[in-house]
Amino acid sequence: MALIVQKFGGSSVRDAERVMNVARIVTDTYKAGNDVVVVVSAQGDTTDDLIEKAAEINKNPAKREMDQLLTAGEQISISLLAMAIESLGFPVISLLGWQAGFNTNSVYGFARIKNIRTNRLQAELAKHNIVVVAGFQGLNRYDDLTTLGRGGSDTSAVAIAAALHADKCQIFTDVEGVYTADPRKVTSAQKLDEITYDEMLELATLGAQVLNNRSVEMAKKYSVELEVLSSLNPVPGTIVKEKIKMEKMLIRGVTKDTDVALITVIGLSDNPGVAFQIFSKLAQRNINVDIILQSVGRDGTKDLTFTVSQANGPKAVELVEELTVSEGTKITCETNVAKVSIVGAGMESHPGTASTMFEALYAQNINIKMISTSEIKISVIIDTEDADRAVSAVHNAFLPND
Fold it and tell me: Which residues pair with 330 in a beta bridge?
């Protein structure tokens, strides 16, 4: 007997037909002799609908109250799925995040899991119940409901798998696995049989929407083997693990991220510590900075360019203005930009990877604004209108359609 954790996203449970489909997948796993814990997201666009309802009442509601509201979406999902499983004749119980033992910090809207008290989960499994858990949520030390941020249900599932030492954690989506590019945009995209944690983490961070990056970080930390597969088409998916078989494939994926704001500070003082002051201030406000480019100092000044998410763009500009108000600097914020990236552990030992990518962009007359590299990825900032064309061109350069 194995312990299997299964997670289903909002599209997999968006209506009654999909909920019954998920119930059959879960009960088939249970009938095979496994213990099963199921983690579910809110149905379809429920979370977005709740956000819109809040905006009708208050344009700037307290984050605590937003968490109170948004946790309702998963409560609906787990109840409906439990009813569906019950209708098929199987023992089942649904649990909210706090009932399943999720303790988080107190950062409303983007809480992090501190620990999971597994007593209730283990007790229900001992009764041979299928346990359906609300993803995306937990409880802080003030007994307030908290949410884990977008994609938090993936993190919930991996956390349960780690805490219970599950044999497998399956992430069910509306695609059949992890692809080398978005198959809806790139017809030559190839499904991967397996991928490393590090490669998947880069893809998730750089815009691939198959897995939440925090869930991959946790899976790597606790050696939880993930499988990404379709809830609609019963075919083998993609395994995410520490090591994979050696293959000839150099690039594992090409991604696009349009949630980018490009901030440029011109005429910044060339004194020591200026960059530290700016980025420490951003960090204090929980603003994550991605690509950073600083020019060589000249005439006592330097230029600094960096990227943040679009939502954090205005706040980042405001904070930089506060720090540089007396320097006469010029600050701009561009939001019509996108980040296109290639990821693959193989590129580290293959000279010419960057030139191949840049040649593909040059052939399409696509201008590069910024470049960032690491051992397993290369990212470029370009105009948003060129993003889809760039992904196709770069993908074809490395993974031509045979």
Answer: 266
pLDDT of residue 325: 67
Count the helix, strand and coil residues of the chain and give each as a percent rounded to the nearest 5: 40, 25, 35
Distance of alpha carbon 368 from alpha carbon 1, whole angstroms:
53
**String of DSSP letters for 33-44:** T-EEEEEEPPST
**Residues 45-70 pLDDT 10s:** 999 999 999 999 999 999 999 999 99
Amino acid in position 224: V
Other Cβ atoms closer than 10 A to 39: 31
What band does 248 get if pLDDT is binned at 50, 70 and 90?
A: low
Report the predicted TM-score, pTM, of the whole model to 2 decimal places.
Answer: 0.85
Alpha-carbon span 329 to 265, nearest angstrom: 7
Distance between CA 7 and CA 154 in Å, rounded?
Answer: 7
Q: Exposed, middle or buried by CB within 10 Å (0-12, 13-18, 19+), for 250?
A: middle
Q: What amino acid occupies position 394?
A: V
Lowest mean pLDDT among 31-45, 108-122, 296-310: 296-310
Q: Could you tell me how far CA 254 lies from the centroid of its own chain?
A: 16
> Which residue is associated with the tokens 């580290």?
348
CB 106 within 8 A of CB 145: no
Exposure b/e, 211-233, CB count within 10 A at least 16 = b: bbbbbbbbbbeeebbbbbbbbbe
Task: For the chain, report the end-to-end CA distance as a whole number of angstroms.
Answer: 42
Amino acid identity at 310: Q
User: 335 with 383: CB under 8 angstroms?
Assistant: no
Collapsing DSSP states into helix, strand and coil, what is residue 248? coil
pLDDT tens-place string over residues 289-308 = 989 998 876 777 888 999 99
The first and second tokens of residue 291, run together, are: 């690509």
Q: How far apart are CA 126 and CA 119, in angstroms?
A: 10
Minimum mean pLDDT among 133-147, 212-226, 260-274: which range?
260-274
Note every long-range contact of 346-353, with CB atoms under 8 Å and residues 24 or more positions apart, other chains counting: 346/249, 346/250, 346/251, 346/252, 347/250, 347/251, 347/375, 347/376, 347/377, 347/378, 348/375, 348/376, 350/250, 353/250, 353/251, 353/378
β-strand partners of 147: 137
Which amino acid, one-letter code, is at 343?
V
